Every structure is written in C-alpha cells, then in structure tokens.
C-alpha cells in the first residue's frame, strides 16, 4: 500500500483500518488509496494515541510499530576464544529498539563447544540487562532476561565475555533479535 494517511484525533475509541475488495477503509470511511486485488477482511486495530505504520501486501494489512515492530537485529562475531572480560560487541544505538524478555528470537552459536558453562553479560550503558549462556559442551546459547529492554538512540549495547573465560569456547557468532520502535 503506497501513500501515507493521517487520521484526526480519535478520542478514546480505537481506529480500525480494513481492506474490502479493492478499497481501503478507516472506520468505514474510504481512504484515497486503492489496492489492486486487495482481497477482503484483513484489518488492523490501532489503539487511541498509538502510532502504527500500516502496511498492505495486496491481501492483508499488518500493523508495524510499537506493537509489532520492524526487525532491528544486532549481530556480532568473535573469532577464536575471548579473553577475560573482553568486550566482544559495542554498538551505539541509532534508533529506538526493543529487546524482548529472554531476548526471544535471538540466536548464538560457537564453532568450538564450551568445556564449562560460560555466561556473557549483555549490557546497556554498562548496566547488565541480559545473559547469553553457553552450557558445558554446548555450541548454541540460551538467553536470559527478566524483562524487555528499550534502547534509546545514543545508548550503547555491549556484550562482555566472562571474567573466567572457558578454555575451549571459540568462534562465537550471535544475533540479538530486536524490533524497531516507532
């Protein structure tokens, strides 16, 4: 769906955007945007006061924004074994990014498995927010985060190796699954 639409303040009621045939409606009012072979029935409910980008693929509408978010993944790789307390990733954030509880959707793997458990500290501006854990004999990690984290532009996300590094864990690649917050 090309084009942009602005809706006036809608009070306390949610706004509903919907495709019906080749037309796009917002709360029953036809927009100046049409879709070829749009399909029917797909809709997005927008809460009062929320900002949501509505995207159509020709048959359905999707709300992208604070509720769902476009991907904003952050990846890193450390060749060889990390040194004690080595910062293996340091990224200043340019846009608002949400990391979900337990960093849902994140992945990490190592070329050589850990001999003992190894916990990497994930920090925002130097404050621990999550853990990337390689269990003994594992080449993939699990993630632990008690709550979601919202990173603001200018904050620094870092991943720090354990104080006592594992002797065999090496070649660590990871992607922290985040979402853009509009």
Question: Would you mind describing this structure in some detail?
Answer:
The chain has 182 residues and is mostly beta strands. It has no helices and 17 strands. The strands form five sheets. Strands 8-15-11-12-13 form a five-stranded antiparallel β-sheet, with no helix packed on it. Strands 3-2-1-4 form a four-stranded antiparallel β-sheet, with no helix packed on it. It has a three-stranded antiparallel β-sheet with strand order 7-16-10, with no helix packed on it. A hairpin with a 2-residue loop joins strand 11 (118-124) and strand 12 (127-134). The chain is elongated. The two termini are 19 Å apart. The relative contact order is 0.22. The model is unreliable at 1-11, 19-25 and 27-41 (pLDDT under 50).
The helical percent reads under 10%
The number of helical segments is 0
Number of strands: 17
Name the poorly predicted regions: 1-11, 19-25, 27-41
Strand content: over 45%
Adjacency order of strands in the biggest sheet: 8-15-11-12-13
State the end-to-end distance: 19 Å
Morphology call? elongated
The radius of gyration computed from the alpha-carbon positions, rounded to a whole number of angstroms, is 22 Å
Order of helices and strands: EEEEEEEEEEEEEEEEE
Instruction: Classify the secondary structure makeup into a structural class.
Output: mainly beta
Average residue-wise pLDDT: 79
Largest sheet: 5 strands, antiparallel
Keywords:
about 180 residues, single chain, five-stranded antiparallel sheet, 17 strands, about 50% strand, mainly beta, four-stranded antiparallel sheet, disordered N terminus
